[in-house]
Design brief:
Elements: E1 4-7, H1 17-25, H2 37-50, E2 55-57, E3 61-62, E4 66-73, E5 80-86, H3 95-118, E6 125-126, H4 151-154, H5 171-188, H6 195-209, E7 225-228, E8 236-240, H7 271-294, H8 312-322, H9 327-339, H10 350-370, H11 372-375, H12 381-390, H13 400-407
Parallel strand pairs: 1-5, 1-6
Antiparallel strand pairs: 2-4, 3-4, 4-5, 7-8
Helix pairs in contact: 5-6, 6-10, 8-9
Protein name: Aminoglycoside phosphotransferase domain-containing protein
C-alpha cells in the first residue's frame, strides 16, 4: 500500500506563506481540469523539499470544510500527499473562525504526531502544516476602546459563548457550566413562547445536567479506516486517516463504541445487524483488553478495557447533549436506561412548567395592550422587561404584567 504523507497547511516561515493565505482567504475556485494557483505552490514546495522531479495531481474533491487534492509523487515509494485547504468565503472567515481553526489544527497535529511517535497505530505522517493565520487585520485594538466603551456594546449576550474564555480543570466542570448556561438561555429566550415546546427542551437539559460525566469527541468512522488483505482470513488495518477535531481528552473516550458498530438511532436496523453489532462490540472489548494487557501496566494502575462494555449511558448522554437533533430518538432510551422501562416518561416538573405558562399569559397581555408587532414573537426576558417598564402606564394595575414586575421588585 502507498505511503500516505499528510499535508494539511504550509509552514508559516516559508517565503510563500503570505501569498498562500491570500489565495485561501479569497476562496479561489476553479473549473474541472484547471488547477487553482494554490496547488502550483504546493507542487513547487513538495518537489523542492522532497527532492522529487516529477509528480501529478489526482482528482480534486470537496470535504466537509476543505478543498482536498492528492499529489502523487513519482518516487520509489509512490508517495501520496494529501493537501487540504480551508474553504470559506471571505465574508464567513471571521477572526473568530481564524482563532478556532488555528487551535483545531494545532490540536490535530499534536495528537497525530504523538500517536505516530509513541504507538504503532498506522496514522498519516504530517509533512508540513501551519496553525497560524496571516492576513491584513482590519479594525483597532480593543484595549484602546474598552475603558470608554458604552455598556451595551461591552456586554456579552450569549451565556454559552462566554464559556470559551474560561479555563476548566476537567470536562465534567465544563459541561456542568455549559448545561447551566444552556438552561439559563432557555429561560431567557422567547419570553412568553409556546410553554409546551419550551418546557420540553428545558426538562431534557435539566435531566442531562444531573448525569454529567467526563466527555470526548472522537470521529472513529468506518470511512476513516483503511483495510488490506481483505481476501484473506486475517484482514489488517493499514491506516487510520482523517484525524480532524482530534485532541487529548479523558479516559472516558473508551466509554462508547465506534459508531459503525452501534445501532443507528434514525434507521430501522434489522435483527441480524443488531445481533452482529452486539458481537462486534464484544470483539471490541476483547481486543481492547488484549492491547491493554500486552502493555503490562504497573501494578495498581486501573485498566480501561472494561469501560467500553459499561459505556452505553455515556454514549447516549453525549449524543443528546452535543447534538440536540438526536434527542428525539435517544432521550427515551437514556430515560429508560436510568429509570427502567417500567417508569413512565413524565414532564411533571411543576415549578418550571408553571413559570413558562405564566410568562405566556404575561406576553399575551402585553401583545393585547401594545400590539404583537411592538412586542415581537422572539424577545429575550431582559428586553421584554425593559419594554413593559417603558410603557408601564398602559397596563392594568391588576393585570399579569404589573404582577410580574412586582415579583421582580420593579
Amino acid at each position: 500500500m502507498n505511503t500516505c504523507h499528510h499535508v494539511k497547511y504550509l509552514d508559516k516561515s516559508r517565503d510563500i506563506q503570505p501569498l498562500y493565505w491570500r489565495l485561501i482567504r479569497s476562496n479561489i475556485r476553479y473549473a474541472s481540469g484547471i488547477p487553482c494557483p494554490i496547488h502550483h505552490l504546493h507542487l513547487q514546495l513538495a518537489r523542492t523539499l522532497l527532492q522529487v522531479d516529477a509528480s501529478h495531481w489526482g482528482k480534486h474533491m470537496y470535504g466537509a470544510y476543505n478543498l482536498v487534492r492528492f499529489l502523487h509523487l513519482h518516487d520509489p515509494n509512490n508517495t501520496i500527499l494529501v493537501v487540504r485547504v480551508p474553504l470559506r468565503s471571505e465574508d464567513n472567515m471571521t477572526a473568530k473562525h481564524d482563532y478556532a481553526l488555528s487551535k483545531r489544527i494545532a490540536s490535530e497535529v499534536a495528537t497525530v504526531k504523538y500517536i505516530e511517535t509513541y504507538t504503532n497505530i498506522p496514522v498519516p505522517h504530517i509533512f508540513l502544516h501551519s496553525a497560524h493565520v496571516e492576513g491584513n487585520a482590519e479594525g483597532v485594538l480593543l484595549s484602546s476602546l474598552w475603558n470608554n466603551m458604552e455598556d451595551n456594546k461591552r456586554r456579552e449576550t450569549g451565556s454559552r459563548r462566554r464559556l470559551v474564555t474560561t479555563a476548566y480543570a476537567n470536562a465534567a466542570n465544563y459541561w456542568l457550566a455549559y448545561t447551566n448556561a444552556y438552561l439559563q438561555d432557555i429561560c431567557d429566550a422567547d419570553f412568553g413562547g409556546d410553554p409546551g415546546f419550551k418546557i420540553y427542551e428545558y426538562f431534557q437539559m435539566w435531566f442531562m445536567r444531573s448525569i454529567i460525566p467526563a466527555l470526548y469527541d472522537p470521529s472513529m468512522d468506518a470511512h476513516n479506516i483503511m483495510i488490506t488483505d481483505i481476501d484473506t482470513a486475517t484482514p489488517q488495518i493499514s491506516a487510520v486517516i482523517d484525524w480532524e477535531m482530534s485532541c487529548a481528552e479523558f479516559s472516558s473516550v473508551y466509554a462508547y463504541y465506534p459508531l459503525f458498530i452501534v445501532n443507528h438511532p434514525f434507521r430501522n436496523v434489522d435483527e441480524s445487524l443488531r445481533k452482529r453489532n452486539v458481537q462486534d462490540q464484544a470483539t471490541f472489548n476483547e481486543l481492547l483488553a488484549e492491547a491493554e494487557h500486552s502493555r503490562k501496566p504497573p501494578d495498581g494502575v486501573p485498566g480501561l478495557s472494561s469501560i467500553g462494555s459499561h459505556g452505553y449511558p455515556t454514549y447516549l448522554f453525549y449524543q443528546i447533549v452535543y447534538d440536540p437533533d438526536m434527542s428525539t430518538a435517544l432521550y427515551p432510551l437514556i430515560f429508560a436506561y436510568i429509570y427502567s422501562d417500567d417508569e413512565e416518561f413524565s414532564l411533571d416538573y411543576y415549578s418550571a412548567w408553571e413559570r413558562f405558562e405564566k410568562e405566556s399569559k404575561i406576553w399575551l397581555e402585553a401583545c393585547q395592550v401594545l400590539g404583537e408587532g411592538v412586542v415581537g414573537s422572539k424577545i429575550k426576558t431582559s428586553e421584554f422587561k425593559d419594554l413593559v417598564v417603558k410603557h408601564l402606564d398602559s397596563f392594568d394595575e391588576e393585570g399579569n404584567v404589573r404582577a410580574w414586575l412586582a415579583s421582580l421588585n420593579i
